[in-house]
Design brief:
2 domains, 21 strands, nine-stranded mixed β-sheet, alpha+beta, six-stranded antiparallel β-sheet, 448 residues
Length: 448
């Protein structure tokens, strides 16, 4: 099958060039995937897929067309090319046009991204779901719900600039579990990895269940300004926004607070470092090459509080007279995997640093009210706890966090030493990070 994918990728390149396109890139993804859904503490639905999707990047006279198709069979992959040529003359020249890059050194696929445990579990993920449910119920929860999503992915890339076809195989595990206890207790945790480690799935289940049990019988508190300990679930969600805003495209669009800073500017607490780490083989978007065939590399977005790197593809780099960072995205440069450097604190030590504050374990409905200022709001979800004199005293009802991302980064005052790998629909970029203590965070009443 892999040889067929390579052959058809070459055929698409040849077909597009013969039809009159001067530059072509083809990104083909073949996924063998299964998902088990958990409802009422039982595996309820098991789905299996085998899919092919084809990304097309086509250039004619500096006019760029980007399209994605999902053919019903591999033999039909090249059919859309002729149709796209018909509309090329009606497309305006791109103000961001730059030639597809021809790397000085040929990029190499990243090795070691396939885990046989994931491959075997794809065939029957029910055993994993039953194990997760059993572990969660050790904490005396009433019920749990969630998903375990497993995939084997073959990524095939060819461009008219690099010549050779690049092929990279990887596996992915993405899971979350939400537990419920009593009338109002709930907790959630997630996991994203290239590997299947049942101990980590069990940890996910235990954390979600423990938070559900401990958050029963919640009380109201007044919103205000609090020192807040953010869990990796919550901080990961916020950092996904921060990292995307480091994209040059987002800066061009006026949708980033980084437009107020230049690399070298102090932008966060000196205790905080955020890396884009595509070479981390344990995180699901690890890769040796980007969508333009440029070698990827690990780089700091923010290091010791200092803004270090704007993320580029070849087009945004040309516009800003610099080099690509290996983050293409044909349209928008994007981070691959995010890693936060660990701190020195245990979780109870972080909590011990708080005189009056809140532990927030989960969130949703994050919205940006002002991108240039980084003004956002997000609603806390599931387990939420009041901290008084360095210890958790009671579970509380949800609040809205309403603040600015630069202020959150600047007010970081401590990071945990234990790192968690988080990925789910509120943390789409795989993120490895600890709990974090942020001082003087503004909150208000929630409305949903």
């Amino acid at each position: 099958m892999k040889e067929e994918l390579v052959e058809y990728t070459r055929k698409i390149i040849d077909k597009a060039v013969s039809e009159g396109f001067s530059e072509v890139a083809v990104l083909l993804l073949n996924e063998k995937r299964s998902m088990v859904k958990i409802a009422n503490s039982e595996p309820s639905v098991v789905q299996h897929w085998s899919t092919i999707s084809v990304g097309l990047y086509l250039v004619k006279d500096k006019r760029i067309i980007v399209a994605r198709v999902e053919p019903s069979s591999i033999e039909q992959i090249d059919k859309p090319v002729k149709e796209l040529l018909k509309i090329a003359s009606r497309v305006e020249e791109s103000p961001l046009y730059a030639p597809l890059p021809k790397p000085e050194k040929e990029p190499k696929p990243l090795e070691g991204l396939v885990d046989e445990g994931v491959v075997r579990a794809i065939e029957n993920p029910v055993d994993l779901a039953e194990r997760v449910v059993e572990v969660a119920h050790r904490e005396k929860v009433d019920r749990v719900a969630g998903t375990i999503d497993l995939a084997y992915i073959t990524r095939v890339l060819a461009t008219t600039a690099i010549g050779n076809v690049l092929v990279e195989d990887s596996t992915r595990l993405q899971a979350y579990l939400r537990a419920f206890a009593g009338e109002d207790g709930s907790g959630q945790w997630a996991l994203g990895s290239t590997r299947l480690d049942t101990r980590r799935l069990e940890e996910m289940a235990s954390i979600a269940a423990r938070y559900a049990v401990e958050s029963r019988n919640r009380v109201e508190i007044e919103p205000g300004v609090y020192d807040i300990v953010l869990s990796p679930m919550v901080f990961g969600n916020l950092l996904n926004y921060v990292a995307n805003m480091a994209s040059a495209f987002m800066m061009f669009m006026g949708m980033s607070f980084f437009v107020n800073y230049k690399p070298g500017a102090s932008i966060a607490s000196t205790k905080f470092t955020l890396l884009d780490d595509p070479l981390n083989k344990e995180l699901p978007r690890a890769t040796g090459f980007d969508d333009e065939g440029v070698s990827t590399r690990t780089k700091p977005i923010i290091e010791d509080g200092v803004f270090k790197t704007i993320l580029h593809n070849s087009k945004t780099a040309s516009k800003m007279n610099t080099e690509t960072t290996g983050n293409a995205g044909w349209i928008m440069p994007t981070p691959w995997n995010l890693v936060v450097r660990a701190g020195d604190y245990k979780l109870d030590e972080l909590i011990g640093e708080v005189k009056k504050g809140i532990l927030v374990t989960n969130n949703w409905y994050t919205r940006l009210q002002n991108y240039v200022e980084g003004q956002f709001s997000t609603i806390t979800r599931d387990a939420l706890f009041l901290i008084e004199d360095g210890r958790i005293t009671k579970p509380i009802n949800k609040l809205r966090i309403a603040d600015k991302l630069p202020r959150i980064l600047s007010n970081i005052d401590g990071l945990g030493r234990d790192l968690y790998d988080i990925q789910w629909w509120e943390v789409r970029i795989p993120t490895r990070l600890p709990y974090v203590l942020v001082r003087q965070v503004h909150t208000s009443k929630h409305t949903v």
